[in-house]
Amino acid sequence: MSQTDDRSHPLPDSAQDAARAARAPHTPQTEAPSYRLAFTDTDFLLREELRPVRLQLELLKPQMLMDEHGITSTVVIFGGARIPSPERAGQARTPELGALSHFYTEAREFGRLMTERSLAGGGHDLVICTGGGPGVMEAGNLGAQDAGGRSIGLSIVLPHEQSPNAYVTPDLCFNFHYFAIRKMHFLMRARAITVFPGGFGTLDELFEALTLIQTRRMARVPLILFGGDFWREIVNWQALARAGTISEADLDLLHFVETAAEAAAIIDDWPHDNG
């Protein structure tokens, strides 16, 4: 049976009609914007009123493709795009940033360790997922490649040009317009969330995940912060508890580590049904 015949209904599919419409004679009527098929009309899809449709498309496309590739769970790596690899530490914009370069090494090692665990189970669980950019994200994807496995990159269109790093698995490299939908995809399959030193974007991702877990809008998963000194300096966690704006128990949602091995051990020991 041909692909054309192997359908659940007798009607022509959208691809067939798109091809037929493209072969229509060129007349004032067929060349008018109103005549274009709605689902092939980019100008129409980009209209303000179509935002709900675009939101749905950005949710569906990565979801469907990850399903097709058998991705059942991920390990998320958040962290700064500006953190250099150790060999480039001397080129960092500040000495303090250069001193954080060892976290590039740890992110790469963590990506490798998690991917080895993923491959041992068939390669569908614990798949590394990053923001697809440079710095810590690049290191995580590189570590997955070191282990011979796949990794995901969730990029976003930014005002300055930024291509996905070279280590994201091409078939699992996505690009987003909506930050909110991108953040949903980071967390929808997450079995663990790791956060390396970073800037505003990293803080945003950390506190979004932390809030969802605290309010039980998301099942509790390991939330692991690399670099205790960094995180305790930029956020006075204990002051929040003393002020009563969070509870002492909320501090238990955070795990501080320095090395990839420590983070991997927390994930290994985490009960899968912990919610």
Automatic annotation (TrEMBL):
One of its GO terms (cellular component) is cytosol. Its EC number is 3.2.2.4. Residues 1-10 have a biased composition (Basic and acidic residues). InterPro entries: LOG_fam, LOG_family_nucleotidases. It catalyses: AMP + H2O = D-ribose 5-phosphate + adenine. It comes from the Bacteria. Residues 1-34 are annotated as: Disordered. Signal peptide: none annotated. It is an enzyme of class 3 (hydrolase). One of its GO terms (molecular function) is AMP nucleosidase activity. This is AMP nucleosidase. It comes from Paracoccus liaowanqingii.
